[in-house]
Amino acid sequence: MAKLRGLSDHCPLVLSADEEDWGPRPSRMLKCWKDIPGYNLFVRDKWNSFQVDGWGGYVLKEKLKMIKVALKEWHKTHAQNLPSRIDNLKIRLSTLDEKGEEDDISEEDLVELHGVSHDIHSLSRLHASISWQQSRSLWLKEGDANSKYFHSVLASRRRRNALSVIQVDGVTLEGVNPIRQAVFSHFESHFQAPNVDRPGVDDLQFKRLNPMEIGGLTKPFSETEVKLAVWD
What we know:
Layout: H1 39-49, H2 56-78, H3 82-102, H4 107-135, H5 148-161, E1 165-168, E2 171-174, H6 176-191, H7 211-218, H8 223-231
Antiparallel strand pairs: 1-2
């Protein structure tokens, strides 16, 4: 499927494929967040607003959990759905281009044209930064997001992390659901409490005190016993 050209002279082609569902992915901090205006202020204000009582380690853990939830919501409004936002800007840019070809473009439309182009450039750079971090290529600072190197790094990492076939007790398992169930069962067996027959005290015979000895435990001290304990 061909998409709108945007700032490039070429129309990108999109090849879609069905992705297997391996379950929820871990949350990560994105380096590009610091380039978004208001990020540092948001994190500082949110962190200071959290009130947690307890010892230092517990407070830190709970605050990190809460800031994670807050950043997830912040990400939805600032850095999520970048491709669709870029596509909407490209549609608007295409409309302005067609308007300029048919008639003289007004000053207001010209200002909007420059603004849309700037937004496409900013969001595209933000989207490329996220993609570069996902590829784990830390030294890749500049370049085309559609470069052969970038795609090879990203594809190589996906292949390296993929689990296509595993063996459990001599049985070969393939597919997402069997592998997920096998991994879940493996860790479940490690963390659940095993049923172990432990020795009890029900059948043991202990020495017991007779009624006279029991009474001696609660009998008041005599004056003679107190004198012997204090002065002797």
